[in-house]
Every structure is written in structure tokens, then in C-alpha cells.
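Hello,

Our lab assistant flagged a job as stuck in the queue for most of the afternoon. It eventually completed. Since we weren't sure the result was trustworthy after the delay, we are filing this so someone can double-check. Below is the sequence as submitted and the structure that was eventually returned. Let us know if re-running is recommended.
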Amino acid sequence: MPLTQQQRDRYARNIRLEPIGRAGQEKLLASSVLIVGVGGLGSPAALYLAAAGVGTIGLLDGDRVDLSNLQRQIAHGTADVGERKVVSAREAIVAINSDVTVRTYDRWATADCLPEIVAGYDFVIDAVDNFATKLLINDACCARQVPFCHAGILEFEGQLMTVRPGQTACCRCVFGGWQRHAQLADGPFAPERQPSATARVAAATQAGVLGVVPGVIGTLQATEAIKAILGIGELLTDSLLTYDALSMRFRKVRVPRNPHCPACADHGGVPARRDAPANK
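-- returned structure --
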């Protein structure tokens, strides 16, 4: 659908970019992105995607806003404490851009619901904070052949990578079930920092997080979504980008695709071992 004059004015700075133009902006308006987890990562991703003119944004989260969330979860404010996160985030998105259609799923991410939900979107953003749920997202996206961006944060560090199922390394290729790739031992989820699966799941909720770190990583996830939708630039595929806020260092590590991966090698996904809440 052609842009209205109001839309041409709103998205003028996007349209002036040669790789985007009017055709690209129209493509963004016709696109859809699902954000699983509307917390520290999902908040900046949702707001920037809304501002960019992504036409449909899905929000999946079964949690309520807590006062401790406000240090980093910028889609929510003091008045939203106690409110459902998907409701609070929807209001923030609409306040930024009424062009956007917001679909809300006020529930936890589970193996039963995820494949059907992700199938309705062009791109998925993994914005949860535990590996059990991250693997559910990975498996659902691989099963439905939907590209997605994985990310994680802990303390002063963050990481992200983008996956094109069946074409590039997925999270199970890189991390296995619960194990980190040997080259990534200095990342925020390094084995020595998380000696057990239980510790890994709980890490982000029990440890501190510098509030701006998820802002940096969540904004990069939104960037990957826009690039994937428009087909521009180079995606973070077959690579893991790590970020250390204290040293202000980014590191890009190549990661191999596992030709025998149970999630992406046969495009069929794997049964989830358990469901896990998308805590942020």
C-alpha cells in the first residue's frame, strides 16, 4: 500500500536512506515481528521497531511489571507497576506510533504454543533471560523456518546472534543443550560462571544487570530484524557478537553450524524437554 503524506513525513529519515527508500518503508509497514519477553531486551527492541514503522508487533509475555524492572525495562513506567507487561508495552508502542498493530499474548512461552505463534511472523526476537526458554524459541523457529535473533545479558555483558533456520548455525549448534561452545568461554553465560543448569536458568534474575546493557543489545536485535526484513546489510549469522560494557569492547566470534544438529539439520525441530517462563 502506498505511503500517505503523514507516513512520508514520519519516516522521512528512513526513506532518505538509499537501501530503504519508499519501497523499503512500505515493506516495513507490511512486515511483522514477534518479541518473546517484554523486559530489558524486549523493551528497546519493541520501541525502536515501532518507531521504524514495522507494521505488526507481537508481544508474548506472561509476567506483570515489578518495581525492580524499571531500572532497565523502558517500555514500562512507575504507573504500570502491577500491570500485565504486554498491556503496558502495547500502550508504550501505540503512544510512539499509532500505525503499528500490536498483538498481545499474555502467557508464558511453551512448547505447545510457540510453533503456532511464530509461524505468523516474519521475524522473531528472543528477549528472554533463561536458556530453557531460549531453546524453546530456537526449536519453534527452526521447525517453522522463521528467522530470529538470539540475545542474552548478564551483569555488564551481552551477546547476540541471528539465525536463518536450515541455512546458518542455530542456538543448539552453538550451545548444545546447556553447554557453551569452547571459543565462547569468556561470554556472559560462560560455564565457570554457571556451574549447573539450574544456575544458568536463574542467573539473570539473581545477578545484577547494568540497566543500559539490555538497551544496547535489544537495540541491536531491532537492527537485525529491520535488516532481515529489508534484505540489506550483513546479518549476524554464523557469528556471535559479545559486548563488555566495562571495557567497551565488542568481539565477533565465528561459530560453526552443526550438520547433525537435531533442531536445524533436518528442519524439523526437536521436542522440548520442559517449558520455562520467559522471565526478564
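-- support follow-up --
The delay was a queue issue, not a problem with the job. The result is valid. Residues 31-254 form a domain with the Rossmann fold fold (CATH 3.40.50.720). Confidence is low (pLDDT under 50) at residues 178-203, 267-280.
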